[in-house]
Amino acid sequence: MAGRGGQQMNQFKLVLLGETAVGKSSLVLRFVKGQFQEYQESTIGAAFLTQTVCLDDGTKVKFEIWDTAGQERYHSLAPMYYRGAQAAIVVYDITSHASFLRAKSWVKELQKQAENVAVIALAGNKADLAARREVQTEEVEAYAQEEKLLFMETSAKTAFNVVEIFAAIAKHLPKNQDTRRGDGVNLRRAEAAEAKSGGCC
Fold it and tell me: What InterPro entries is this protein classified in (predicted)?
C-alpha cells in the first residue's frame, strides 16, 4: 500500500549473518530482485543492496542490506558490518543442525556486541527441503521465544516467507526518529507470532 505524498522514508541498516551456504545471498536476491539462482557463488567480504518495504499502514521502510560472507576467515570482518545496524537476520539451513548451532553463536555475539540492533530475526532457510530436515521447528521456536527473537522458516527457492520476514522486521523497528543512532530501543521482545506479512510496494 502506498503512503501519502511527502511521507517520511524510514531507513535502517540490516545485516545478514550465518554460516556459509545457508542461503543468505539467495534470500537477499529473492527479496531485492525476485530472483533465485541454483548455484550462488560465495560472498567475499560482504555485498550491499537496498530494498523498500511498504507496510499495511502505508509506512515505507528502506533497508540498507549488508550480506556478509559466511566463511570463518571473514568472521573478524563481521563487526564492521553489524556495527550501527538496527536489524539483523541470522540465517541457518534447516537441513544442517551444525548451521543452527552456528546461528546461536551469532545471536549471542550480536546480543553482546551490537548495541544498536533493535530487532534480531532468525531465518530457517531451505524450507523447501523439509524431507531432509535436521532442525526441528519446535526446537527453534522455543529458543527464539527464550531469546526474544523473531523467527520464520523461509525458502529463497520458492520465495516462502522471504518478503514476510523483512516486513516483520520493518514492523518492529522504531519509526520516524533518528534511525542512524538506534536510540537504545530494544524491540526484541516482539513475539514471532505477531510478525505477519506487511504490504509490499
Answer: P-loop_NTPase, Small_GTP-bd, Small_GTPase
